[in-house]
Design the sequence.
């Protein structure tokens, strides 16, 4: 029989992804959302083939177009914005004008999914809420994302990922016990994780619609998505004690922690089961300890786990990290070196796997962005293009989708129903790129027609 | 505070023809799961995960959406039953295992034996989704891998979760290293971005583990998401496929920051402790009676924050986003201190009230510039469970089991009007459904 790893290599080969089918081909998504929480859910559908129309205000644009780390724009754009918006169509339509609403309703008639993340009730007030769009298209699947959800006394409270982390109790868990050190979950995890939960709910709703033909309304509160992953509530209801900050360890495994090795690297090490603990003690040459700590529950008791933590810390501090990794490979216990941003971006394994993708874009040229951690063998996700300047696909969509003529589009531009960027990084194209010659931006048209440049 | 907050909003809604209470009741009844169909009512999921919660979590998500989930474990039980904070247990079951025992069937079947594998093959022939967490190639060597099972059942969706995946040289080389949450956090870039800055004393400046199973929950969610996408494809074509989840990718693939900052900045970010590297102020401060999270990153939000804290005198120094970027740590520590000197004068509720009142007025005034400073109490689980908001939204549900007693779990985290996920029962005795499963799937 063929070797397993050469079989799987063929099954998942990243170079064949572009020839494989897309699950959501033909699914149309109307994306009113901004920043991260909503857009990520829509982008995941785009990753697997859906056509996502991202609607932004002319000359304003999504707030996250300016969400740059330490003020550093990359080719006049935000790298974070590229990640939450690849494969989307960028429409810049002024929702306040009645003519724009006609366009939106026409889109909604044919759309399958709508995503929004305004404060609760705002979409309704603007005429694009579920109650209105479901009249235009009863089969629509409508996802409303908010920090506290669409009903309940807190629903009018505005929110960001940080506030969801505070309200769900996630912040109260990370830090050193007995000090004033708390840490939030970094990188807006409180947006990304619930955003992926939103994508799951959309896929489930699409599946349901395939079977029954029914659309539906989804109310997703990011705080609730975060609460779902915390054991503290159940822990409290059973033990009547708070699960406080636990320090640099996992209280469900002993030993477990992030330790410093002899060569100054950081190594995460854990033993979750009897088997793994046996492997660890064997690697340490301390087999006599196996019988001492054989009870799985008992060794998690703080006095025992502290002792195990100390033993592991001391052992790691006397060895180089490479040696520890080799012992883990040989004996079979969980170990991983702490990887930082630079190592991850340049990791050979991730490049081979396709979880870090070197991508060549028509406008932004070479870029490296993350692939999914779940690879699908037959219908993989893929990157087709990065985010685009504000209103980039206006002309393309208005002509191909709505069948508008050049004159009609010019009138819309004049009436400020649609619009483009102004001279700010984040919403304009990179300085080296000649947008006037771009075949999509100037779809079947010469550049002279445009007003707002 | 509440009265002042509610009044203007009432008017807004009346203007659009719905009263506050009507909208509330309408939505609450719309989202109630009672009597509604379940999305995955005709889907069978086999959970063969072993000592790995990401598999259990993925299976839970399928079960909440209505699938028949069969947890396959050896006669002595999955070691995951004993993975629990500080060894806390109920009737021999750890708390995380109990919390994830949602709508599942428990079957004892030992895939390490020939007889067990024979039954497993029969089950897999009738399953739609299979989840496993053994070392890459282990199931294949047992002849119950994707390669063998998909021959008898081409519609099978086979999700495997391991640290380094099913293909590439590293997957093969690191095959023997088991998965755990803390190693997933470390390998995927989460730990490196939590902790105090370099200048702090050791060990506070070390990489730090997030205090929840972030690694395992991401892998579980991504496996379920991949599985759901594969189910849609199966509905169209009848074809199944293999899903390969690498837990060493979990965090980096979800949030992306480690990858694109590593690439564009060409170095690793330093750890920033309590600060954020994109937005400021965006963190937490002491109040008179606890800790509050404050987000006021846009310039107009920041101005509003200064107004409500009576700090307007410092506005000139910190006016623009670029004055407040956290690349100069001393600078930002200084601003942190200035803000904290004011926040400790008020209780958390006072601060929240001030921010809300300002926001409501600002929304109506052309002079106030629409700034929205957002303040929220950093809450502990016991406070959160008392909050009427989550009560109305049924975010927590109490269960009672003969053997497990009474307990509360967080649930109903996705509200859907037609086919909401739900938790129907929680119980997880080893082999409790042997008879039922054997009769239903293994009798022929």
Sequence:
């Amino acid at each position: 029989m063929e070797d397993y790893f050469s079989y799987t290599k063929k099954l998942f080969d990243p170079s064949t992804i572009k020839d494989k089918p897309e699950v959501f081909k033909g699914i149309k998504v109307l994306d009113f959302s901004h920043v991260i929480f909503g857009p990520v859910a829509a982008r995941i559908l785009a990753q697997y083939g859906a056509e996502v129309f991202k609607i932004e205000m002319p000359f304003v644009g999504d707030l996250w177009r300016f969400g740059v780390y330490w003020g550093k724009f990359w080719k006049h754009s935000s790298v974070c914005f590229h990640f939450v918006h690849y494969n989307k169509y960028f429409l810049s339509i002024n929702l306040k004008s009645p003519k724009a609403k006609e366009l939106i309703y026409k889109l909604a008639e044919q759309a399958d999914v709508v995503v929004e993340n305004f404060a609760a009730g705002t979409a309704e007030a603007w005429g694009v809420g579920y109650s209105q769009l479901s009249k235009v298209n009863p089969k629509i699947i409508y996802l409303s994302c908010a920090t506290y959800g669409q009903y309940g006394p807190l629903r009018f409270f505005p929110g960001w990922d940080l506030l969801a982390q505070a309200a769900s109790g996630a912040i109260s868990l990370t830090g050193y016990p007995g000090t004033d050190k708390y840490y939030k979950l970094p990188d807006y995890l409180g947006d990304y994780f619930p955003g992926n939960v939103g994508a799951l709910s959309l896929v489930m709703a699409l599946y349901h619609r395939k079977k029954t033909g029914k659309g539906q309304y989804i109310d997703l509160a990011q705080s609730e998505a975060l609460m779902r992953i915390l054991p503290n509530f159940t822990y409290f209801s059973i033990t009547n004690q708070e699960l406080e900050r636990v320090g640099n360890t996992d209280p469900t495994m002993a030993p477990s922690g992030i330790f410093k090795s002899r060569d100054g690297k950081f190594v995460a090490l854990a033993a979750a089961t009897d088997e793994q603990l046996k492997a660890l003690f064997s690697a340490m040459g301390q087999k006599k300890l196996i019988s001492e700590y054989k009870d799985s529950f008992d060794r998690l008791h703080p006095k025992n786990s502290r002792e195990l933590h100390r033993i592991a810390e001391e052992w790691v501090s006397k060895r180089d990290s490479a040696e520890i990794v080799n012992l883990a490979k040989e004996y079979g216990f969980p170990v991983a070196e702490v990887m930082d941003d630079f190592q991850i971006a340049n990791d050979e394994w991730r490049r081979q796997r396709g979880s870090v993708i070197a991508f060549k874009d028509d406008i932004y040229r070479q870029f490296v962005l993350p692939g999914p951690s779940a690879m699908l063998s037959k219908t993989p996700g893929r990157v087709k293009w990065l985010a685009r300047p504000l209103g980039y696909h206006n002309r393309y969509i208005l002509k191909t989708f709505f069948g508008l003529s050049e004159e009609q589009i010019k009138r819309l531009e004049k009436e400020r129903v649609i619009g483009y960027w102004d001279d700010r990084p984040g919403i304009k194209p990179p300085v080296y790129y000649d947008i006037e010659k771009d075949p999509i931006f100037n779809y079947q048209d010469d550049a002279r027609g445009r007003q707002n440049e | 505070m509440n009265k002042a907050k509610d009044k203007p909003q009432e008017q807004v809604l009346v203007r659009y023809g719905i009263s506050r209470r009507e909208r509330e009741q309408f939505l609450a009844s719309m989202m109630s799961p009672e009597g509604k169909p379940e999305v995955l009512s005709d889907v069978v999921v086999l959970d063969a995960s072993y000592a790995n919660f990401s598999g259990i979590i993925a299976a839970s998500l399928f079960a909440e959406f209505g699938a028949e989930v069969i947890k396959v474990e050896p006669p002595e039980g999955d070691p995951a039953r004993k993975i629990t904070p500080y060894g806390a247990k109920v009737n021999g079951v750890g708390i995380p295992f109990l919390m994830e025992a949602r709508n599942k069937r428990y079957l004892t079947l030992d895939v390490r034996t020939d007889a067990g594998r024979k039954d497993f093959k029969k089950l897999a022939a009738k399953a739609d989704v299979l989840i496993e967490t053994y070392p890459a190639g282990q199931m294949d060597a047992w002849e119950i891998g994707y390669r063998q099972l998909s021959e008898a059942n081409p519609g099978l969706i086979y999700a495997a979760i391991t640290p380094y995946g099913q293909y590439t040289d590293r997957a093969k080389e690191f095959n023997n290293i088991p998965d755990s949450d803390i190693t997933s956090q470390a390998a995927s870039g989460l730990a490196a971005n939590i902790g105090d800055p370099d200048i702090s004393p050791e060990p506070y400046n070390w990489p730090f583990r997030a205090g929840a199973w972030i690694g395992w929950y991401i892998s579980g969610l991504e496996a379920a998401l991949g599985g759901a996408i594969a189910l849609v494809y199966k509905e169209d074509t009848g074809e199944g496929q293999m899903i390969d989840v690498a837990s060493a990718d979990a965090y980096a693939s979800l949030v992306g920051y480690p990858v694109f900052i590593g690439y564009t900045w060409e170095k690793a970010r330093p750890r920033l402790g309590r600060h954020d590297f994109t937005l400021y102020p965006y963190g937490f401060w002491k109040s008179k009676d606890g800790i509050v999270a404050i987000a006021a990153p846009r310039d107009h939000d920041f101005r509003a924050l200064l107004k409500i804290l009576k700090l307007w005198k410092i506005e000139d120094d910190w006016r623009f986003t670029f004055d407040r970027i956290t690349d100069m740590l001393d600078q930002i520590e200084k601003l942190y201190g200035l803000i904290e000197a004011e926040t400790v004068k008020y209780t958390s509720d006072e601060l929240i009230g001030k921010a809300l009142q300002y926001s409501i007025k600002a929304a109506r005034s052309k002079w106030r510039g629409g700034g929205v400073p957002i303040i929220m109490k950093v809450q502990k689980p016991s406070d959160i469970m008392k909050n009427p908001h989550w009560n109305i939204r049924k975010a927590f549900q109490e269960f009672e089991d003969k053997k497990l007693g009474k307990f509360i779990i967080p649930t109903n985290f996705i509200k859907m009007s037609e086919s909401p996920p739900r938790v129907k029962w929680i119980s997880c005795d080893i082999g409790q459904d042997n008879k039922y499963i054997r009769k239903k799937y293994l009798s022929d």
Remarks:
- Chain B touches chain A through 189 residues (CB under 8 Å).
- Confidence is low (pLDDT under 50) at residues 1-16 of chain B.
